[in-house]
Structures are given as C-alpha cells and as structure tokens.
Amino acid sequence: MLSNINNSLELLETAQKEQLYKKLVLQLKKDFELANVPIKLSVDIPPAELKALLHEKVYVLIVEKFDQYLNLLYVVDISENEVRKISASDAVDISAEVSFLLLKREWQKVWFKNKYSS
C-alpha cells in the first residue's frame, strides 16, 4: 500500500493508477471542512497542482494560523510522533513534510475503505 512511496507526487500518481484519486481528493476536502480550514479543491485537479496547493495551504497554516493547523492534524489523525520526526528547519520544508504526512494518512483512509467496504 505505502511501502515504496517516498513523496507526495508518487502517492498521488499511485492513487490515480488505482483509480482512487477522486476519492482521495474528496477525503481531503471532507477532513479540511471538518477542521474548519477552507480549501478549494476540485476532483479534476491535477496531482502536481494538488501537491502545490496542499503545500501552500499547510505553510500558511503553520505560519499564520497555528491553531487551525493543529486542529487539521487532529482531524486527519496524524500522529504527534510522526510530526516530531520531521528534521526540517524552516517552515517551507516542514510544510512539505507535513503535506506528505497528510496525504499518506488520507490515502490510508481511502485505500482501506475501498479494500474492505462491501
């Protein structure tokens, strides 16, 4: 499922190959809404654009709206330990790593729902 995925773009391309990309985008939209973090996502957004948009959104949250950032991590269910493992030193690199963590967790949700729903 996630064993050989090293970055956000690979993850998004894998979701497309498995025909779960639209479900992944919808899951992202749903969790951002639950966290009261506005984001404009279309199910037709190209993977590179989604990666860039997510990175930018997480960056803004870290720098300007830290409470919303923490709430998003809680809603998406990203482990505090995973965030602590990030060794990047500036907000741009941290936001890229957190974006990848977000996508990985959302991909897990979508993949498991698809695999085990009847």
Mind explaining what this structure looks like?
The chain is an all-alpha fold. The radius of gyration is 13 Å and the shape is globular. It has one domain. The model has no long low-confidence stretch (mean pLDDT 92). The protein starts with 7 loop residues before the first helix and ends with a helix.
- Radius of gyration over all CA atoms, rounded: 13 Å
Strand content: under 5%
Q: What is the distance, rounded to the nearest whole angstrom, between the alpha carbons of the first and last residues?
A: 19 Å
**What's the helix count?**
6
Please give the domain count.
Answer: 1
Poorly predicted runs are none
Instruction: Give the SSE order as H and E letters.
Output: HHHHHH
Please summarize the sheet with the most strands: none
Assembly form of the protein = single chain
Average pLDDT level: 92
Percent of residues in helices: over 70%
Defining key terms:
single chain, 118 residues, mainly alpha, 6 helices, 71% helix, globular
Provide a quick synopsis of the model.
By secondary structure, the chain is an all-alpha fold. 71% of the residues lie in helices and 0% in strands.
List the helices and strands and how they pair.
Blueprint: H1 8-17, H2 21-34, H3 47-64, H4 66-76, H5 80-84, H6 91-116
Helix pairs in contact: 1-6, 2-6, 3-4, 3-6
